[in-house]
Fold each of these.
Amino acid sequence: MTSTVDVSVPTTSVSATPKPFTAYHISLRLPLRTFTLQKRYSDFVTLHSQLCSQAGVPPPATLPHKTWFTSSTSSPALTEQRRKDLETYLQTLNSIEDDRWRNTPAWRSFLNLPSTVTSRSSEASNLHGGIPGAGGSQAAADPVVWLDLYHGLKGQLHDARLQITMRDQATAAQAQHECSAQAKKHLVKAGTITIQLEQGLQQLGSESWGREKQLGDGELRRRKDLIENAKREREGLENLLNAMVVKSSLDATISSARDKEKLVGGDVPSKKQHGGGRVLGKETKQTKALDNLGVLQLQQQMMQEQDEDVNILAQAVAKQRQLGMDIQQELAVQNDMLKMLDEDVDRVQGKMDVAKKRIGKIS
C-alpha cells in the first residue's frame, strides 16, 4: 500500500555555524497537518544504513554519492542536484507498494512520525478519520495525533450540522431521508472519535509503567474541556435531528388523516381548522404548519434548549471563576519567587561591593 504522507525537499539553506554545512528542508504533509524538518546529508546516510539493517534488504532507491573535492556549501549547482536526488530518494521510498522500509523505526524517527502511525492508507484513515478499528486509543495516546483526531471530530460535527441544515431545507421526503442518514453517520463517527480521545487522554495523563505524564495538568484540563464541549455539541445535534424526524413523522400522519377526512367527511376539515383556541394571523413561520400538538412539542423543545444554554453558561462562568483562582495562586507564587530573586540580587550586590572595596585597597 502507498503512503498517505506527502514528502518533498523544496529548499535548502547553509548553517551559520563556524563550520558551515548544507541543511535540506523536508516538507511533510499529513492528512490534517503540515510541518518541515531540516536534515544534513550525513543524516540521510545514517537513514540508508539503518533501513538496510532493519528491513534486511537495501532500499530500491540510492543516495547521491559523496563528493570529496567539492563542498555543497560553496557550489550551488551541486547543492541543487543533491537536493533533487535526495527528494527522489525519499519520494521513491514513500510511493512504492512494498512498505517494509516505511514500517521501520528508522523511517518514522527520521521523519518525526508518531510511533503508532504506519504508512498504510487504511490505518491512516482509521487514525485521522476516527473510524472504529484496532489501535485507535493507542494512536490517541500521542499528543500530536490526539490533536489531529480532535480536528477530525470537529470536522465530523461540522458535516453533521451541514447535513441537518440541508435536511431542513429539503422538501422531498427522499432528500430528507438521505440527509438524515448522512447526519447520523457523521454523529456516530464523532461518538467513536470522542471515545478514542477520552481513552487517549487517560493514557496521556497516566504515570503507569514507569513513565511520566506527557502533558501537564493545565493542558489536560484544557483538552478535557474540549472533549466536554464536543460531546455537548454532538448531543445537541442529535437531539435536533431526532426532533426533526419526529416532526416529519407527525406531519406525515396529520397529512394522511386530513386526506382521509377529505375523502370521507367533506366539510369536516374546514370546521376543525378554526378550532383549538389558536388565533389566526398571529402564527409564526415555525408554528404555521404545525397543529396544537406540534406547537406544544416545539415549545417544550425551545424551553429545553434554553435550559441547556443556561447550564452551559453556568459551567462557563464556573470555569472562568476557577481559572481566575488559578491565576491568583500562580501570581502569588510568582511574587514569592520575585521576592526571593530580589533578595538574591541584594545579597550578590553586597558581595560585589565588598569585593570592589578589597580590590581598591589592593590597588
Note: The longest helix spans residues 292-362.
Amino acid sequence: MLAIGTVLRTTGAAVTLVATIALLAYPLSHQIHESARVQDVFGHSPLKVWEPINLSTPDTDHVKSLALPFGSEYFIPGFSSPAWLKRAPPLAPPREITYDEALCKGRNYWREVQQAFDGNRPPGPVFSIQSATDNGWDVDARERRPLPVGWNDAFQVMARAQGVTNVNPDSEYIELDQGRSFRNTQGKRIDDPTYAFYNQHYLGDVAAIISVWSLSPSAALMGRRHPPPAEDIPNLIPPFHRLSDVQWTYWSNVAGNNVGRLRFLGRDHIINENTTAIIKHIFRAKEDVELVPWPGLSFSIETDEAKALLGTPNSINAVFLMRDRAAVLGRRRPMVTIWTQPDTKYICMMWDLVPE
C-alpha cells in the first residue's frame, strides 16, 4: 500500500507541493484501483475522476485527466518520478443498469455475434503493432510476469481445456498508455491525448488474455471534469481505441500462425459498477450471497445469466472479438464463470469461447 499525504499552498500562479510518502508492503496497482470507479470499455456513465495540479513537469502533463480513485493523492506507476494529482469535484453517481436492461443488451449482442458467425456482418478493422505508436499509445512490453493473484485455479482449467500439461503460468504482460498526440479517423491531428490505458496478460500456451485494469479513450474523455459533448467524442479518440482491437492485435503477435485458437478472456478485480451490480444480482439469486469463491458460478450462453453478463461493460471486448473476428475464430458457444477472490473480495470473470 502506498500512502501519500500532500499539502498544497497557492500564491498567485505559484503552487507549492509538500509531500510525505510512506511505502508499505502492498501492491501499488491494487491500492490505486481498489476503490476506483472507472467505466472501462465504452461505458456511458460519468466517472469519478482525478485531474492534475497544473505544474509544468512532463509527468503531470502526461497524466492529465487520468481517471483514478478518490481518497488520497498518488503517484502513477511506470513513470520516472511522481505525477501529482488533485481531486476533481464529485459527479452525480451513475445510474446502475438493471438486470433486465443488461439481459436485453446481451441478447442483442449475442444476435450480432450469431450474424457474424453466419457471415452476415463485415469483419473488424485490421491493425498492426505499429498502430499503437501511430495512434499515440506508449507501449511497455514487460518481461514475463506471474498470473494475477488468485488466478492459478482458473489457469489449470485453461490448461486442461487446451490439453497441455507442465505449462509455466507466467505471461507476457503489456501496458498501453494513450499519452501522445494522434490523428483521428478524419486524419485531423489531435494534440490532447486521452490518457487511456490498457494492461493485459497474454498467455500463449493456454490461448488466454487476462485484463488487469483498463480505461478506454472514450471513457477517459467522459471522465474529465469538463467532458466534451458526447457527439464530439468519436472525433477526439484515435482509430486504434477499442480494447478488443488492442487484444486482437497483440494476441496475433503472441500467437503467430495460431491466432484463431484464442479461447479465454479474463477480467481481474472488476470494479465497474454496472458489471458488479449484475454479478452480485446473480450471486444473490443463485446462492443468496454476494461473495462466491472459486469455482464460482458458470453459465452457458443459452442461459439468461450468461446473456446478462454479456450485456455488461466488462464483456464488450468478448462481444467485439467474437463478432469482428468470426472469420478467424469460427463459431463459438461461449461459457462464462464469475467468482470472488477470497482475500481481496474482488470479482473476477472469465469467458470461455468454446469452439463448436
Note: The chain has a mean pLDDT of 79.
Amino acid sequence: MATSQKRLALAIIDFLSKSLSDGTISSEDTESIEIAKSCIADTFHVNPSDQAALKDAIGDQSLLSIYGVYEKLKGKTSTAPMPGASSSKPTTNPPKSSGPTPTTPEAEEFKSQGNKAMQQKDYPKAIDLYTKAITLSPTNPIYLSNRAAAYSASHKHTEACADAELATSADPKYTKAWSRLGLARFVLGDAKGSMEAYQKGIDYEGNGGSEAMKKGYKTAKAKVEEEEKEGGDEEIERAASPREAGGAGAGGGGMPDLAGLASMLGGGGGGGGGGMPDLGALMNNPMFASMAQNMMSNPEALQGLMNNPRLREMAQNFGGGGQGGGMPDISALMSDPSLREAAMNMMGGGGRGAGRGAQQ
C-alpha cells in the first residue's frame, strides 16, 4: 500500500481523536468514533499510537488546518491588490493567498535535494523531492514554484501552470512564480494569460521589472498581436470569398453552376426515372471535358449554351418530359447543327466561332 495513503489514514485518525477531545464531536459518539478509528487502522495497517509515523504524516499541522488551506485556495477567486498593477484582467484569477505555510528543516532538505536533481537534469527525481517538501509545507511558494519549473522541464505544462498559480496565490510577491506561470501559459497556447502573468511579475518586481520578465512579456505580447492580426485577416478573406459573396456561377470565372446544368439536362426530380446524369461518365467524354474547361474560364459561354432553345427542347424530351429520363444521348445532341457549332465554339475548335476561344 502506498505510503501517502497510510499517512492520510493516520491524519484522519488524528483528526477524529482531536474532534473528540476538543468537543467538536459529542461524548455520546465516543464509542462510534473509536470503532471508526480502529477500522481505519486495521484496514490501512497503521498504528495510531506511533507518534513518529504521525509526525511524518502531518508534521506540526493537522488535517483540519491542511484542509482549511485547500478550501481557501480552491474557493477564492480574487487576487490581493498589487502596487502599480496593470488594468488588464487575467484570463484566470489565481485564488487569494492564505499565506505560505511555515517550512521545516526536513522540507528544506527535500528542496535542496530537488535543486541538485534539477542541476543534474533528473526532472522526475526533482519532482518527487519537491513533492515531499510540499507535503510538509503545502503552500510554500518556493517549493511550488520549483516543482513548476521541474514540470516545465519535463514538458508537463498543465501541471506546471497549476503549481505556478498556487505559488502566486500563496505569495504574490514571489516573482519567480509569475515568470513560471507566464511560461507555462504561453506553451499551453494562452498567450494573453501569459502576457498578464509576466505583467504582474513586472509590477511586483518594481523599477520596470527584470530583463527576463520584460523579455517574456514582450514575446507573449507579440504572439497576442499576431493572433489578433490573423483573426482579422480571416474575416477579410471570408468577406472576399466568391462562395461567400455570390455563389459558384457568378462572375470571375468560378466553377459553373453544374446543378443548373443537371436540371436542364433532365436531373433533379424530373419524374419518370430521371434524375441527375452521371457526371463522371459525362466528363470522360473528351468533347465535354474540353467544354467544361472552357466553361470554367468563361461562364458567359455556359449562359449562352443554356439559352439555346434547341438544347432546352431536347433536354425536356430526355428528362422531365417523362420518357426514360436520365443521361441524354450525346450523338443525338451533336447531330443538331446549331448545338454542334456551340460546342465547337466552347471547345475552341474550328468553324465560324473558332476565333473567339482560340489561343493567340
Note: The first helix runs from residue 3 to 21.
